[in-house]
Design goal:
Blueprint lengths: L1 H19 L6 E9 L10 E4 L4 E4 L5 E6 L2 E8 L6 E7 L3 E2 L2 E3 L10 E2 L6 E2 L7 E5 L11 H5 L5 E5 L5 E5 L7 E5 L2 E2 L20 E5 L4 H4 L6 E6 L9 E10 L4 E12 L2 E12 L3 E2 L3 E2 L5 E14 L2 E15 L12 E8 L2 E8 L2 H5 L7 E17 L2 E17 L10 E15 L6 E16 L9 E16 L2 E16 L2 E17 L5 E8 L6 H5 L4
Parallel strand pairs: 1-7, 1-8, 14-17
Antiparallel strand pairs: 1-4, 2-3, 2-5, 5-6, 9-10, 11-16, 12-13, 14-15, 16-17, 18-19, 19-20, 20-23, 21-22, 23-24, 24-27, 25-26, 27-28, 28-29, 29-30, 30-31, 31-32, 32-33, 33-34
Length: 542
């Protein structure tokens, strides 16, 4: 399978290079952006096309101009201190369009959704969806990404310490929720209670939460919903943007730091980011300090790419590293948390539980048992104007390494070591819009292999292959918007000399009716499914 996919990828990029040399027809959108109240021009205002991942900023005269392929687009116009303006605009030829922005007073309820293959107004989507922007993550206290998302209606978390949280959407979690990061399905050890989501929350730009079955687009595990996380967003042409911030929380002495910078020069886009986080044991009103709940993180990444009239191509690298203690909760008869130590005696070593000290609680270094987790992703994200339609191709390789250290006599011994490698691929062709019909056909899947390198194993080594074909369509009629589609999936898994194959179909049908600007009726019915995961088929004592 790897061989055939490699040939497919190489053939695709040869074709991309040939097509890129054929400059497609483009038109120019230009205009002026000003303050509606005063008429003053707004220098540095942004005009952004979410579907193209492309934008421009106004010059010192408040003028913007950008070359794009003719078509219908959702456009976001923004400026610091002003309300975001989102419109749908048809641009068949050169067009002059001015914008006037209002000072921010009330949050704009019409936002752009990107989880349905094409950028869509949130008012036109038949499914319940929540949008969480970067600034929303810092309005409350949270210790990780899912902890922050759990403030969203319909989303909760299963937590086993401040560093580990698993998303629960309307009562379902684990392998029933799909997490996407920059278009790639996050693959770790989702089946376990002590396995979190390996994504740097400080580098998240935007998150969309779909709270319905979405198997039609994202496969079998999207049974309860999808969390679509965007981390790397290129800046407008000619701009360089940077951010530096820090975070401190007094309960567990959490200290977090983040830096990122991105630029765009003549269509060459780039970006770098780095984050660190560390925390000692947290404290609650029942137990006081909870021993070995400390953790630390060191994350980094970047992207480089090209954006031209034919589309864009981005190469993204992300590295997540985390070391965290595992809470055992052992106490003595006085209710004090204890830690295990070794006493050397004449007849050999013996193990004794002694009370944890203030120095233990305040330390940033986890004690045995603890986990060391690394998750690395390499992503190639492409969007090409192919004929009168658009081809989107997203390919990635990710490696999840989860090591558990639990032997106090041999601290470097890996009791558990899951080494999971995953090759993801997704190809979608967006047909040109005809009579307000928007059709999309696609194929996506993955190939996965898990190896055990520790002294123990909870699940066997295995290989897995998934492949899905789908069709999705959208139709606009006056105040009505319809959407629906179907998908067929196949999954094969091999372990301990056994081969298991699964397959099923998924479908959905939805409608929205915009009675007024503030009153919208939505209806959606969907059929999802989930193929069993390896922990359910071949776990050993888990």
């Amino acid at each position: 399978m790897f061989k055939y996919l490699s040939i497919l990828f190489i053939s695709f990029f040869i074709g991309e290079g040939v097509y890129a040399m054929q400059a497609p027809k483009t038109v120019q959108l230009s205009g002026k952006i000003s303050d509606e109240a005063t008429g003053q021009i707004l220098q540095g205002a942004s005009v952004y096309f979410p579907e193209l991942k492309k934008g421009v900023v106004t010059n010192d005269k408040g003028i913007y101009q950008i070359n794009i392929k003719p078509g219908n687009y959702i456009i976001e116009v923004s400026y610091i201190g002003f309300s975001l303006q989102t419109i749908t605009l048809s641009i068949p030829t050169n067009l002059v369009k001015d914008f006037m922005l209002n000072h921010a007073v009330v949050e704009n309820t019409n936002v752009t959704v990107t989880s349905f293959l094409r950028s869509t107004s949130s008012k036109k989507t038949p499914t319940p969806i929540s949008i969480i922007k970067k600034e929303d993550f810092f309005k409350g206290v949270s210790t990780n990404l899912i902890d922050a998302l759990s403030k969203t209606p319909g989303v909760t978390q299963l937590s086993t310490g401040p560093a580990i949280s698993k998303p629960i959407i309307r009562g379902l979690g684990y392998n029933r929720v799909v997490v996407l990061n920059d278009g790639v399905k996050q693959e770790g050890q989702q089946w376990g209670d002590e396995h979190g989501i390996e994504i740097d929350e400080y580098n998240v730009t935007r998150t969309e939460v779909l709270k319905v079955p979405a198997s039609i687009i994202y496969g079998s595990e999207a049974l309860s919903g999808v969390i679509n996380i965007t981390s790397n967003v290129p800046v407008a042409e000619g701009a360089i943007r940077g951010n530096v911030f820090s975070n401190y929380q007094s309960n567990n002495n959490l200290q977090g730091y983040h830096f990122d910078i991105a630029g765009n020069k003549n269509g060459l886009v780039w970006g770098l980011n780095a984050s660190s986080k560390k925390a000692s044991d947290y404290k609650n009103k029942y137990d006081g300090y909870v021993y070995n709940s400390k953790f630390s993180e060191l994350n980094g990444g970047g992207f480089v790419g090209i954006e031209k009239d034919w589309g864009y191509s981005h190469f993204i690298i992300n590295k997540f590293s985390q070391k965290l203690g595992m809470i055992e909760g052992t106490r003595n008869n006085l209710g004090q948390f204890t830690k295990q130590t070794i006493i050397n005696g004449a007849s050999g070593n013996s193990f004794v539980d002694i009370p944890a000290t203030d120095a233990d609680f305040n330390s940033f270094t986890p004690s045995i048992p603890y986990q060391y987790i690394q998750h690395t992703k390499y992503i190639l994200d492409n969007s090409i104007n192919w004929g009168t339609g658009k081809l989107k191709a997203n390919m990635a390789y990710q490696r999840n390494q989860r090591q558990e250290f639990g032997n106090i006599e041999m601290p470097s011994e890996k009791s558990l070591y899951f080494d999971l490698g995953t090759l993801n691929y997704s190809f979608q062709y967006l047909l040109p819009e005809t009579n307000n019909w928007k059709h999309t056909i696609g194929v996506n899947g993955l190939q996965q292999e898990n190896k055990n390198k520790g002294t123990d194993a909870l699940i066997p080594e295995y290989k897995s292959v998934e492949l899905g074909l789908f069709f999705y369509t959208q139709k606009h009629i006056d105040k009505f918007n319809f959407s629906g589609g179907a998908r067929i999936d196949k999954k094969g898994i091999e372990f301990n000399g056994l081969q298991k194959d699964y397959g099923d179909i998924a479908g959905s049908l939805g409608m929205t009716y915009e009675a007024t600007n503030d009153l919208i009726f939505k209806f959606n019915i969907a059929r999802g499914y989930r193929a069993p995961n390896l922990s359910e088929l071949g776990s050993n004592g888990a």
